[in-house]
Design goal:
single chain; 5-stranded parallel sheet; 5 strands; elongated
């Protein structure tokens, strides 16, 4: 067999397993590639990429001691260390759909599952390098932000029949450039024309993007509903539908869409952050906790790992524990919050607790029924300081309200709102702030005391006040079966109407559905069975 022609393309292999490195080396040398570098860890690979420009990176998922292949690839893209004219082949022995979809979102040129045959690897290497070489001129123009020249080059290539196999890629790049130029009207015409030729998924996505930027939301919504059924567009459709539902203040529907997207590709931290914020809006404390926990899990060792992630997990743990009636679950969540705070202290070497950490310590004390200690700690922090973190300030306002420092809480909520009017925060946070401010203003006590206060009112025959208190408690803790049972009981036993007949029936149905899908305590189950008999006798 004749020796392969020597090639001078620079290739970086990132894999800690010597057998895999040898296999890749053999495959590349058979094709004539000699200029090959090797990195066994993510940090070594980052250092190589800072010092060299590569034509191809072959990256394994499993890497030791820190960042995995996904986090490395993510950082290379986010920091600009990965250039457009550099091909990427991602290799993984793990092929769970969640990982595959997460990696594909980062758009490698190829995804190769282990074990693979050498011929398949060689074909993919050749295909990627050939494509990158053919597109090098346009990639160089795009790196320089010379979009008009890039479009001219693409249009010129599209006139050459011998390049017809590359036409779909040329056309996709053309559409991408038009979007980068914000030429949405022209881009919409272009994408419509492409869809007349062939139902390209990238053209469907581009068309919807243009419709959204032109505020044609009804048309975009109809398109997105169709895109849900297609594997290659489902993830994009779910993200967009979540955004559209949020704009319409349909928070439950928005949460359902973003949750479905997060289940498909869970490693996208921006998506997890949106899920956390939407779950807060919907008082879904369990999902809020899950999203905060997943953000810590997937950010560990990555460029996105920072103290705020652990603080958010502590907050979510406390919020979830305060809404739970399960003492064992409360203990576990309290322990998780403590561990998160300890991680911040240990991992980031802080000499003294920050105010955000002290506020969380106070909320933990409140959770553990040390209300006076929590109150005293917050009194010591009551001095007004400049707001440098909206999340920290909001958490403090919640904590002040929980321990009964209502005036201080109201004042801080007002300061946060004023700050937001000047700074224009992210819309999801702004919606949550507005909701928290309104709900706290309606509550004389913290959420935890709402139910107990309502029980007291019920026992003293204050039916209307008890109904209002139970309704508010259930609004704030809509998955708490104990509160649902108390509200159900109030509606069934009140000697006079507490709301319209339609609202009463709706509340009875909603409460009963939650109760029957929950694990009640023995006393609660006995009470529920007795109330069911009472309801049946009333209907009879």
């Amino acid at each position: 067999m004749e020796p392969a022609v020597k090639r001078d393309e620079r290739i970086l292999i990132i894999d800690d397993q010597s057998l895999s490195q040898s296999y890749l080396r053999y495959a590349l040398e058979q094709l004539g590639y000699q200029n090959i570098s090797y990195a066994g860890r993510a940090q070594s690979a980052l250092n190589f990429c800072k010092q060299n420009n590569y034509d191809l990176i072959i990256c394994a998922y499993n890497l030791p001691n820190g960042k995995d292949g996904y986090q490395l690839f993510e950082e290379l893209k986010a920091t600009g260390l990965h250039k457009l004219n550099c091909g990427v082949i991602f290799i993984s022995a793990e092929t769970e759909p969640a990982l595959v979809h997460s990696v594909l979102e980062l758009q490698p040129d190829e995804f190769l599952a282990k074990p693979y045959v050498i011929r398949d690897l060689q074909q993919r290497i050749e295909r990627v390098l050939k494509r990158k070489q053919q597109l090098r001129p346009v990639y160089e123009l795009l790196e320089l932000k010379q979009h008009d020249k890039a479009l001219d080059w693409l249009n010129q290539q599209l006139t050459q029949p011998e390049l017809h196999k590359l036409y779909p890629l040329f056309l996709k790049l053309k559409g991408d450039i038009m979007l980068q130029q914000h030429a949405y009207s022209d881009a919409l015409v272009f994408f419509n024309a492409m869809l007349q030729i062939q139902p390209f998924s990238w053209a469907r996505i581009g068309r919807v993007f243009c419709l959204l930027r032109q505020n044609a939301e009804d048309q975009a919504f109809a398109e997105l509903q169709q895109m849900l059924s297609r594997t290659e567009t489902r993830l994009y459709a779910l993200d967009c539908l979540a955004e559209l539902e949020f704009r319409q203040q349909h928070f439950q529907q928005a949460q359902q869409h973003i949750l479905a997207a997060a289940d498909i590709a869970p490693r996208n931290l921006l998506r997890q952050q949106k899920l956390l914020q939407l779950s807060r809006l919907n008082h879904d404390y369990e999902l809020q906790y899950r999203a905060a926990r997943d953000m810590v899990k997937f950010a560990r060792y990555s460029m996105y790992e920072q103290p705020d992630l652990y603080l958010n997990l502590a907050r979510a743990s406390i919020d979830f524990a305060l809404s739970s009636e399960d003492s064992e679950q409360q203990t576990r969540l309290s322990r998780q919050a403590t561990m998160s705070l300890n991680t911040v202290q240990r991992q980031y070497g802080l000499q003294n607790l920050t105010e955000a950490q002290q506020v969380l310590q106070a909320r933990l004390l409140y959770l553990q029924d040390h209300r006076d200690k929590a109150r005293q700690l917050l009194v010591e922090l009551s001095e007004e300081i400049e707001i440098d973190s909206l999340e920290n300030a909001l958490d403090k306002a919640k904590a002040l309200h929980e321990v009964g420092l209502s005036d201080a809480s109201k004042s801080l909520f007002n300061r946060i709102s004023q700050h937001c009017r000047q700074q224009q925060p992210e819309p999801l946070f702004a919606a949550y702030l507005n909701q928290e401010q309104q709900e706290r203003a309606a509550m004389a006590h913290g959420p935890r005391e709402l139910n107990n206060n309502a029980v007291h009112l019920y026992q003293h025959g204050n039916w209307q006040e008890a109904f209002s208190a139970f309704t508010l408690a259930w609004q704030v803790m809509p998955k708490n079966a104990g509160i649902a049972l108390n509200l159900w009981q109030t509606l069934l036993t009140s000697p006079r109407p507490l709301c319209s007949a339609q609202q009463k029936q709706q509340l009875l149905n909603q409460c009963q559905q939650l109760i029957e899908n929950s694990n009640l305590k023995p006393e609660q189950m006995l009470r529920y069975e007795q109330l069911k008999q009472k309801k049946l006798s009333i209907l009879a």
